[in-house]
Predict the 3D structure of the following.
Amino acid sequence: MLAPVLGILGWLLMPEPVPAYPWPVKPFDGEHAINGTLGEFRNRDPLHCGVDIDALTGTEVYSIDTDPVDSISGAGSMNENVRIGRFRYLHVLHSKGLLAGQQVTALDAPIGTVNSANHLHLEESTIRGAVS
């Protein structure tokens, strides 16, 4: 009698599975160093709103979702970024020919390269085009 109750209790307490995404830099299924985490305290920004993935300047960045490009902004600044669906790729010099509204396929072709920040800041939002 106790086993079924414990089984139901375990099922109720089990968290929802978290979706797994490929990395937006090669190797897509390999290991990458992280130098900033979601929610991390920062002096100038109260909480870090993304994940910083170590990547050298010039590293190719790929969309991890199939969606149209929502926006490309910050050209020429340290905060160059590309927003595609729920994701924003910050510190990215966008690829020549990449345009807002253009459909991109996950991991198909680079959307840009890491700028001189030497890391890729990746944000995800549950609302299309919004920042988490």
Summary: The domain at 24-124 is CATH 2.70.70.10 (Glucose Permease (Domain IIA)).
